[in-house]
Amino acid sequence: MAKGYQNYRGRHSAGARAAIVLLVIVLIVACASIFAQQYIVYADDGGIYLDLPFLGRVDLPAPPKPEPEPEEPAEPEDPPVNLVVQQPEEEEPEPEPEPEPADVFGEHRVLELTDLPADEAALAEALAARGATGFLYTVRDNTGRIFWASESGQSKAVSADEAATETLRTLCGAEDVLAVARFNVLHDSYYAFANMKDAAICQKNGYVWYDNHSYHWLEPDKELARTYVTGLAEECARLGFDELLLEDLSYPTRGNLYKMSLDNNTRGKTEALVQLLTELRAAVEPYGTKLSLLLTEELIMAGADETSGADLAAMLPLVDGVYADVSSAASAQALLQAAVGEGNEAPPLVCLLAEPGERESWCIPAA
User: Fold this and answer.
1) What is the pTM of this model?
2) Amino acid 358: pLDDT
3) Distance of alpha carbon 134 from alpha carbon 93, whole angstroms
């Protein structure tokens, strides 16, 4: 063997040997622990022991019990609150104010009829449904048509037979029912056309005058016109009507008025109207029938109208009431009183009581 070349043998340090010993111990303990797992028994009282087949029971020290965490003091409970909800006292509803009576004479409410009920029972039912105590029925319209079998009326103008007339007579005689006839006085196309010269308002050429609707008018200054109208009014009174509501008791105000021929009249417009109204009152008075005028609010405010010939100061003393649709009944009544002057009593105002947009019921005078 050559010098200097011998086999090398490694040397273990002391630290390495200690690590090996420790590792061996750890392995032994681990194996012993695994071996002992199958013999560990947990007692009911919380203890732990080994039940070794060759040594028997070997008690193991029990792990320390954790100390309970101190409980935080509970917040004091609020004392119970006795909530008493006081119910608000129910306020008694204020009574609805009673409707103020209309400025009228009497307290009647009359229903305007377009068709006649068959008999008194049907009339009573219709009036009760609207709280009415009477009825208003058009017996002569603005064309001059007559809605009863008139004896003196122009034949072509009569638009009712005997049966309808008898029904009308029966209804007018109903007990405790006020019957009012709506009676157009001078707006007449039938009799005026048939009697141009003696009864109608004519043009300067002698032909009958016509208004903006091509309707004719009677001339109250002519005796035949007055006789015709008063004869019809008397027939209405004989039928049993308690009141005649006079409409168009005036000269026309629309149309080609300049074409009218009034130069030969013996009376002025107002005087002619008053003469006719006087004769009408005389015709119905024996039957106890009242007369009323249907006027516009404009005429009541003005007191008179030169074109129509209406003059409230001259006409109001001859009637028992005034029908008008006015914005203020009290103001209108005051104007009527002013028209008749001090020392005289104005006829009471009869106000329309229909709902807005309707014109079917009236508040009218007592019979």
Assistant:
1) 0.69
2) 45
3) 34
